[in-house]
Design a protein that fits this description.
The two termini are 35 Å apart. The chain is built from 2 helices and 2 strands, in the order ββαα. It has 2 domains: 74 residues, no CATH class; 68 residues, no CATH class. The protein has a two-stranded antiparallel ribbon. This is GMC family oxidoreductase. Keywords: FAD, Flavoprotein, Oxidoreductase.
């Protein structure tokens, strides 16, 4: 999914969990670009399976809605993006909150998008980098 400005995450205004904490509310839509990417991925997969000797392969030219729903079988990202401007981004370049010094967000929320697969190694690298930075801030008495 492209990082559309209109897509956003917020705290739900009325729904809360069993501890009284507001639930996450995601307001995002799959658009034409993503639908085209899903169709193309199915075609590419079919081609790869054929090249590997597979037979009786069936792919849909029109993806079912259950496969294109935000949060279904995907790595959603971008709820707390990094950036230099606190008015435009939740986190700085160290994945540290602009507003809360001891808060670091090192999962997919800090990334506006990713490549085709396996973002977990990137999360791990961001976490190691952020932890090193936090440790240095603690040694300096700044955190």
């Amino acid at each position: 999914m492209l990082p559309y400005y209109e897509n956003y995450a917020s705290l739900h205004p009325t729904k809360k969990d069993k501890w009284g904490i507001p639930l996450l509310h995601i307001d995002a839509q799959i658009r034409d670009n993503e639908r085209k990417m899903i169709v193309q991925a199915a075609k590419d997969l079919k081609e790869m399976l054929k090249a590997g000797g597979c037979t009786n392969i069936r792919v849909s030219e029109t993806p079912a809605d259950k496969y294109i729903m935000v949060g279904a079988r995907t790595h959603e990202m971008g709820g707390a993006c990094m950036g230099d401007d606190p008015k435009q981004a939740v986190l700085n370049k160290w994945a540290q909150s602009h507003d809360v010094d001891n808060l670091f967000v090192t999962d997919g929320a800090c990334m506006p998008s990713c490549s085709t697969q396996n973002p977990s190694l990137t999360y791990m690298a961001i976490t190691a980098r952020s932890a090193d930075y936090a440790a240095k801030l603690m040694q300096q008495g700044k955190l």
